[in-house]
Amino acid sequence: MTMEQPTIGDAFGDMITDAYAVRTGIGPRPLAGGRLPRPVIEVIERDDGLINGAPADHYLDEPDAWQPHDHRALRLCRGHVLDIGVGAGRIAIELQSRGMAVTGLDTSRGAIEVSRRRGLRDTVLATVDEYARAAARYDTFLLLGNNLGLLESRERAPVMLDALARLANPGARILAQGADPYGTSDPVHVGYHERNRARGRFGGQLRLRLRYRMVASEWFDYLNCSAEELETLVAGTPWRLTSIDDRDRPYYLAVMELMR
Amino acid sequence: MTMEQPTIGDAFGDMITDAYAVRTGIGPRPLAGGRLPRPVIEVIERDDGLINGAPADHYLDEPDAWQPHDHRALRLCRGHVLDIGVGAGRIAIELQSRGMAVTGLDTSRGAIEVSRRRGLRDTVLATVDEYARAAARYDTFLLLGNNLGLLESRERAPVMLDALARLANPGARILAQGADPYGTSDPVHVGYHERNRARGRFGGQLRLRLRYRMVASEWFDYLNCSAEELETLVAGTPWRLTSIDDRDRPYYLAVMELMR
């Protein structure tokens, strides 16, 4: 007897839909085998066989439960804001409630649906590249909740940064929250970083997929990089890295400003 | 790029060791990539591709956090007790503290080590079959925490029940907590039950493996059966099913008594 492979689908969206149902009681809740309530868990596989589970509820956290750098990021928002990888709308809904113009972008249909049910009015189901063909223009781009990782790789980062420049008003900024992966002494991670570098990848260039119940995402790169590595990625793009706030190390908040 | 397969090992033991470290601060804690504390999560894969994560901390729960049927089971213990699948020693340590003679049996080296560190004095690292060759004799056998599932299958259950009879004093009883899986309307589970039956298995005869970080257990059968199915399993063995306490449906506490 061998294991069936999971179906490729919107694992993140299915997970966030269930997490929303568990937190609010709205919509069908995931049916556990038994009677006891169970938190919704995000399961992440890495290509070296590492698997990790973490409660998904934080995607729905209200501002009082946020990390300090999220609050500091919000104070830097101005003008029309594009929240990239909006997820359950945690950040975008707060900006909207403060009267700011904010658009939530995600590639997960389930995430967009949950964001809208939670009250986010302006949402886009698309990749950054697809959306860069639109006429919309923004003053602030958000990559919060570790979404600096969406820069993916040495190859992908300049393409994405160019796409954001096409969507940008003059003087626009990117606020991106990253995580420096190199403080660990865990041999599982240190060895992974070394094997990555031997293949020409960034040490913290994770190859991941999400799994939720019967569904898996496609494999994707997600970049945990140091501030120094980020600086090399931004060089040669229309953006300039103007500040790194690393008070919540190993997490940091990077500000990039458009050079026009 | 393909995914590496996880190493086969003591996934349960590794998980319980980390859960113990997180709860007590004793021993090295699992190194998360970041700075935020993370609960230890048990990840269970089923052979149809279903994956589920659940916090592992409950294995260490003190009696005030237990389910009501666990307390009712303890009131039925008498004489020398063998706790089968002792895990982190949750039940056995409480019995020991009440002055009862209790042995904790597990096939997980990590689980036995955590039980001993938590103070359990009498432990055995073995399968039931291996231990049935020993000279020890017991008056009560515990299969709590859903460990009725260790009966596995139609083929395995009578073999295990015979082994327990060899370890039994006259008048011994088995206290086993099971879960009736057939109350669900979730098509993922209903379909699984149907495919199981079509292959001659019990509907709730789950084929599972645990995963924890880089390690996976072997695949194993774990039986969620109804009380009626349990009755058919016990027939023809040296045991008699004398009561089912299903006040905490779908969970139930079965009592089996030795017919000599």
Summarize the structure.
2 copies of one chain form a homodimer. Chain A contains 8 helices and 13 strands.
Description of the structure:
Two copies of one chain form a homodimer. The first copy, chain A, is α/β, with parallel strands linked by helices and 260 residues long. Chain A has a domain at 61-181 and 220-258: Rossmann fold. Helix content of chain A is 28%, strand content 28%. Chain A has eight helices and 13 strands. Chain A has helices at residues 11-24, 68-75, 90-97, 109-117, 128-131, 156-166, 187-198, 227-234, and strands spanning 7-8, 41-46, 51-55, 81-84, 102-106, 123-125, 138-143, 168-179, 205-212, 215-216, 220-223, 239-245, 251-258. A seven-stranded mixed β-sheet of chain A has the order 6-5-4-7-8-13-12, sandwiched between helices. In chain A, strands 1, 2, 3, 9, 10 and 11 form a six-stranded mixed β-sheet that branches. Chain A is globular and about 55 Å long. The interface between A and B is large, with 46 and 46 residues.
Q: State the largest interface.
A: A-B, 46 and 46 residues
Mean pLDDT metric of chain A: 95
What is the overall number of helices of chain A?
A: 8
CATH topology of one domain in chain A: Rossmann fold
* Strand elements of chain A, count: 13
Biggest sheet features of chain A: 7 strands, mixed
Beta fraction of chain A: 25-35%
CATH architecture of one domain in chain A: 3-Layer(aba) Sandwich
Give the helix/strand class of chain A.
alpha/beta
Low-confidence stretches of chain A: none
Q: In one word, what is the shape of chain A?
A: globular
Helix content of chain A: 25-40%
| Widest sheet: strand ordering of chain A | 6-5-4-7-8-13-12
Query: Helix and strand succession of chain A?
Result: EHEEHEHEHEHEHEHEEEHEE
User: By CATH's scheme, which homologous superfamily of one domain in chain A applies?
Assistant: Vaccinia Virus protein VP39
- CA radius of gyration of chain A is 18 Å
Q: Distance N terminus to C terminus of chain A?
A: 61 Å
CATH class of one domain in chain A: Alpha Beta
Oligomer classification: homodimer
